[in-house]
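2 proteins. here.
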Amino acid sequence: MVLLTGGGTGGHLFPALAVAEELRRRGHAVFYLGAEGGLEARLLPQSPIPHALIPAGKLDRTALKPQEAPKVLRGVLKAQALLRRLKPKAVLSTGGYAGFPGGMAASLLRIPLLLHEQNAKLGLAIRALAPLAQGLALSVPVGLPPRLSRKARVVGYPVREVRYPKEEAKSRLGFDPRKPLLLVLGGSQGSLELNEKLPPLLKPLGLPVLHQVGERWVERYRHLEEEGYRVQGFVDAPLAMSAADLLLARAGAGTLAEAAFHRLPALLFPLPPRLDGGAQAANARAYAQAGGAELGDYARLPQQVLKVLENPEPYQKGMDRLSPKGAAGRIADWLEEFL
C-alpha cells in the first residue's frame, strides 16, 4: 500500500489524486490522508479512494501561530496511529498544511517518504520535510542546496492529460473556430484584480474571450458579457485550454502545468509575494525563462496580446519544454522503487 497525503487547496490535492489513480491503475492499494476542513474533505467522499481526515494546523510563513500548534501535534499523533495500523510501504506528501502531519509521521516511523513540490519555490511544509525525505520530486527546476539537490528529480506536475482538436474545442464552447480565443483564468476562486483590470483592456481588441471570474463572482461580473466576451464561474480546463490561443492568468502551479501540457502561450500576473511567499512570482519567472510566457504589463497589454498571437510558435515551444506529460507515471515509478 501507498499512502498519499497533502491538500488544503486544489494545488496540493489534485496532483496527489492523479498519482493515486495511476497507482490504482497499476494494481497498487492506496489510501489518502487529508485535513479536516480542506478541499479534500469535500472531494474525497466523491472518489473511490479510501481516506481519512485529521486535524492539520495551518502553518504560517513566518511563524507557527500559537493556536495552531496543538492541531499540528494532534495531526502528527493521529497520522502516526493511522500509519501504524495501515503499514504503508511508502508515503507521498504533496505539501500544504494538510501534507505535513502524514509526512512527519512517515519520517518518525521510518517509512520511505517522497515529497512533491508543485511550485518553483519550496513551500513551508515541503521545506520542513525535505531533510527527512528519501526523495524530492519537482514540477520545474528549483535552486536547492547540495544536500537536497542530491535527492531531487524534476518530474513535472501531474495533470489531466486530455486534449481536443482546437477547432472542435472552440465550436463546443460556442466560439468561431476561425478566430483566436483569449482565455482568462484567475485560479479556481477567480481573481478580483484580473476581473476588474482585464476586460477594459481586452474588449477594444475585438477578439473572442472566455473569462473565468470564479463561482462567487459570476453575478457581480455578468454585466461584462457581450458578443464574443463570455463570463463563466468555472471552466473545463482541458476543453478551454484546447480551444484557447493565449492564456492570461495568475501563475498558480496547476494552471501553468496545464498550459504547458497544451502548449498554450501565457501572459502572467502572479500574486504579490506578500500574499503567497513568492511562489507565483517564482513560477512566472520559470515559465518566462523557458520561453513559454511573459509577465503581463497592464500598461502595454494590448501590444503584448497581439505580439504573441502574431508569432505564437516560440512560446508554444517554450511551454512544451515544461510539459508535465507523464508526470503521474514518473512519480508512481519512483514510489515503486520503495515497494
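next one coming up
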Amino acid sequence: MTTTVTAEAPFAPEIEDVLSVRRVRPALRTVLVTLGTAITVFVLATFATFALGAASGSNPAAVALGEVATQADIDRLNHVFGLDRPFLVRYLDWISGAVTGDLGASWFTTIPVADSIAQAFPVSLSIACGAILLALLFGFAGGILAAVSRGGIVDRAVTLLTTVSATVPAFVAAIALILLFAYAIPIFPVAGYVPPEKDLGGWMLCLVLPSVALSLDAGADIARQLRTTLVGTLQENYIIGARVHGLGPGRIVLRHALPIASTPALSVLGVHAPRLVGGAVITEVIFGMPGLGQLANRAALQGDVPVVQGVLLITIAMVVIIGVIINLIIARTGGTDRSAA
C-alpha cells in the first residue's frame, strides 16, 4: 500500500503575520534613518552654535565687574562661569545639561535660561505653527484650483499671486500688513501678544498678521509645486481609468490624484521649515511680540552668550522636529497605492 504525503498549507494567521512583518520593516527602517539623520544634524548644529559662542570673544566677567576690576577678579569670575575650562568639556557639559532641560543661567541677570525660554517659546511656536498651517492651506487650495482649471482664468490668477508672493520678503509683508490694518482696515491687532489661556479669541487674532506675513513665500512655492505635479498626475492612466468607471471629479482629485501629487509639495514645505522657524523669530520683533526673537535680540546686545545659545538650541530643535514629522508624512504618503477602484 502506497502512502501519499501531502504538505500542509500554512495557516492563514501565519501568512498574515509574515505579511505584517514585511509591511512593518520598511516603515521601521524609514523611522530609524530619519531619527538618525535628525540626531546627527542636531549634534552638528549645536556644536557649531556653541563654537560660535565660544569664539565670540565676549568676556562677561569684565563687563559685569566694570573697568575697576583687577585681572584676578576677572579670572575668579571666569572660573565661576566655567570659562576657564577646555572647549570640549564645556560643550559636553552644556549639551548634556540641555538634554535634561538645564541650559545654564544668564551671565547678567542670573535667571535660568530655561525659564526665560519657557516664557518666550509659546509665542514663537504659535507663529511658526500658524504660518505652517496657512502655508499648507493657501498652497494646497491654490495648487488644486490652478491644476483643475489649467489654462483658465483661475489658473492664471493663482500663478500671478504666487509669483508676487514668492518675491516679497516676510519682513516687507509684515510692514505692509501693519500699515494696512493699522490705518485702512483696523480689524486685527498689529502689535502685542495675548496668551491663549487668557483669551483664546484674542490669541488667534494676534497671530493672524504675523502668520500671514510669514506664510506667503512657502505657500506660493507649495501651490506652484502642487499645481505642476497634480497636472501631470491627472493625466496618468489610472486617473483616466477612474473617469471611465464614472467616478466624480472631486473624488478623483482628492482621493486618487492628490495623495500622489502632494509628496513633492510636502518636500517643499520641508525646505521652507528652517525659514518659517527662523522667520518667526524675526517677524515677532516687527510685531512687538515677546518671543524668542525679542529674547535673543536683548541677549545679543548685552553679550549674554548663554541666552543666545539657548535660543539657537531651541530653534534648531524646532527645525529638526518639523523636518522629522514632514519626512515621516512624505514616507507615508509616498506609499499610497495608485488605484482607480
